[in-house]
């Protein structure tokens, strides 16, 4: 079953839900679901990435991400849908759980 | 002991040595030692990153890097030296060993 991109209105709705209670919100940037995570140091940042990598692989849905030292910038999009899909929100949600653990 | 950045001439010399026998060479881009590694898939790419992360942490010298699926773009610089130092070449050399393993 093909995965579909979400309408702007749906994205706004899902963003509001995702960002509830978060200090640093996700936002849409360049048609991708974007957030920069800050950790204590490189070990914490890469620890997060390792957990997220296992989840991403199991979802067969992979992030675009940039890391330098304690910063991890994440961009989520669904190439086959040509935009942001529910998979991006699911990965974002799971990343939040992992970042908080 | 403060780490010093390398002169343009030294960088050229070290680059020639580093790139010997490599299919895809390192180059200097925006005053950083740059290379894009291509792997078979995400597992291979992130496996490389995991090995490189352990080495980087042990060197206390961390890369700037971007990953999407099977691609890992690496930029190396030494902030305290304000440019490229011998540490960047050492990390690049060790990354090549890990990428080939």
Written overview of the protein:
- 2 copies of one chain form a homodimer.
- Chain A is of the alpha+beta class.
- In chain A, 45% of the residues lie in helices and 21% in strands.
- Chain A contains 3 helices and 4 strands, in the order αββαββα.
- Chain A has helices at 8-19, 42-59, 86-100, and strands at 27-29, 32-38, 64-68, 71-76.
- Chain A has a 4-stranded antiparallel sheet with strand order 1-2-4-3, covered by helices on one side.
- In chain A, a hairpin with a 2-residue loop joins strand 1 and strand 2 (32-38).
- The termini of chain A are far apart.
- The mean pLDDT of chain A is 96.
- The interface between A and B is medium-sized, with 16 and 16 residues.
- Strand 3 of chain A pairs antiparallel with strand 3 of chain B, so a sheet runs across the interface.
Helices and strands of chain A, in N-to-C order? HEEHEEH
Q: Kindly name the structural category of chain A.
A: alpha+beta
Q: Evaluate the radius of gyration of chain A.
A: 13 Å
Please estimate the helix content of chain A. Answer: 40-55%
Shape of chain A: globular
Number of strands of chain A: 4
